[in-house]
Amino acid sequence: MSDFVIPMQSVTSQEVYDADGLRLNACSLVGREAPDFTLKAVMPDSSIEEVKLSGFRKHYVLLFFFPMDFTFVCPTEIIAFSDAVPAFEQRNTQILACSTDSVYSHLAWRHMSRAEGGIGEVAYPMLSDICKRTSAEYGVLLPEQGVAQRGLFLIDKSGIVQHELINNLSIGRDVNEALRVLDALQFTEEHGEVCPANWHRTCAECSR
Q1: CA-CA-CA-CA torsion sign (137, 140, 144, 147)
Q2: What span, in angstroms and rounded, lies between the C-alpha atoms of 98 and 127?
Q3: Would you please indicate which residues are annotated as catalytic (active-site) residues?
Q4: 23 has pLDDT over 70
Q5: Backbone phi, then psi, for 193, in 5-degree steps?
């Protein structure tokens, strides 16, 4: 697309930017401050509000991107994460979902029942990145399609990205794995220890 011109002076071997300076591909964000944003969102009560990422400091944030409303894999993820909200709240973690759809598209999808292919009530904010800037800054934007890949970012209480996972469009994510990684992060922060392969919180509880 002509809108995505890469000026040579902005290109490195790891990062690519469009003509407006948006980051289109990614070296990892892990260990870096999460790009801040203020986006309109459909809230759990169906109101529309602005959500600012840095407003969640002192909380962990699980930010996940999905390609589009009214598709097939996306509702399974959105519903699964919504059903798991109590588990994330117990871990002081705010879930945020984001796509390049408008808030009105999010609302229409929420107002459809799950039996009809909708998502019904969702227990966390659904962000609208209609300008695609946030998706680009997180390195998940597919510019020719205008949609985000299935990126998931775990951000700590200081706003630092501690974990990222990016799947292509057809591959859904595992809520239990997201919880496992969150548990591992919080365990290492509390105890100053490392977590080996296949670590689970129950392993730590049994060994103490």
Answers
A1: negative
A2: 5
A3: 74
A4: no
A5: -110, 170
pTM exceeds cut of 0.90:
no
What's the chain look like in SS3?
CCCCCCCHHHCCCCCCECCCCCECCCCCCCCCECCCCEEEEECCCCCEEEEEHHHHCCCEEEEEECCCCCCCHHHHHHHHHHHCHHHHHHCCEEEEEEECCCHHHHHHHHHCCHHHCCCCCCCCCEEECCCCHHHHHCCCEECCCCEECEEEEEECCCCEEEEEEEECCCCCCCHHHHHHHHHHHHHHHHHCCCCCCCCCHHHHHHHC
Is the model's pLDDT at 70 over the cut of 80?
yes
- 204, with CB counted inside 10 A (0-12, 13-18, 19+), is middle
What mean pLDDT do residues 151-174 have?
96
Q: Which two tokens stand for residue 151?
A: 């990126």
In the 3-class helix/strand/coil scheme, how is 58-99 assigned residue by residue? CCEEEEEECCCCCCCHHHHHHHHHHHCHHHHHHCCEEEEEEE
In this structure, the chain runs to a length of: 208
Across residues 73-98, what is the average pLDDT?
96
* In the predicted structure, residue 168 carries a pLDDT above the cut 80: yes
Between CA 81 and CA 27 the distance in angstroms is 27
Report, in angstroms and rounded to the nearest whole number, the Rg of the chain calculated over CA atoms: 17
Tokens for 88, please give them: 């994330």
Q: Which two tokens stand for residue 64?
A: 């996940």
Question: Do residues 20 and 29 touch, judged by C-beta distance below 8 A?
Answer: no
